[in-house]
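pinned: reference chain
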Amino acid sequence: MLTIGTLQLKNWLVLAPMSGRTNLPFRLIIKKMGAGLVITEMISAVGLSRGQGKTHTYLDSHPAERPVAAQLFGYETDSMAISAQIAAEKGMDIIDINMGCPVKKVVKTGSGAALMRDPKKAAKILSAVRQSTSLPVTVKIRAGWSPEEANALEIAKIAEDCGADGISIHPRFASQGFSGEADWTLIGRIKRAIRIPVIGSGDITEPSLALKMRSETNCDGIMIGRAALSNPWIFRQILDMEEKGSFDTPDLDDRHRLIMEHYSLLTEYLGENRATNVMRGLLLLYTKRLPSRGFLKGCISEIDGRKRLISAVDRYFGNVREEMESEG
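pinned: its structure tokens
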């Protein structure tokens, strides 16, 4: 179990927020796979508070995915507080403040990981959001901006002092992006230094590593991002490994069914054209490590609608089955 503020999750596994990835259809898939908490894509506080474009659609939700957290990013104290209120009104269960995104277009505004370089500003934002809502508030950070500015422990303590109910830490520096190895020892140091729940993240590529991270760091929860894109089953696998010491690997039918389920959800949410474009980008992720991907790569550019997508997917899995049967 993982408890954040007044909210008790059914387990300790969390889907990381990923821009362009953790939209409503994908969150529904991951919740079905067993995650205790899912998080929206990063949402611009400026865009949300000022009603810009379709920013509010990032808060679209469904009862089946509850509980769900809204992740906000921004540098303006007022817009962050207002956005937290909007997210609460839209039915979100947790407000998550992004202080870890290293992407240039985010940090150049002073948001994301750039906030770790300005602890006073970070404290003002945290306090304003805390005062604006009764929902649990969490913060996502990195190890710091760079090895020369390694202040994750300082920011974690500030978050706790400002009333945050939990913190997630990806122990790489913003300057690293996703290169190098995540320093799990930092997760353990933060866990020992603060009283609020600590969620660890970074390099959880297979189920055994989630259990290893929790054992080595004593963290309260595990956050999984990129690995879930090609293996959404990883949440169920971790829970099975924890309970039984082993887990099942999805077979071809499982993968085929999931692709079509995800496409159906995307179509309902985005419409056929946009759903098809999104699914084209997901096909190579869902078939990672399977044979005959050359065929799939070759026909992806020709997929321009539902009929061609279904046909291409059916032909691909038919080819894989034939290849496996001929080899076995």
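why pinned: The longest strand covers residues 137-144. The chain has two domains: 2-244, 252-327.
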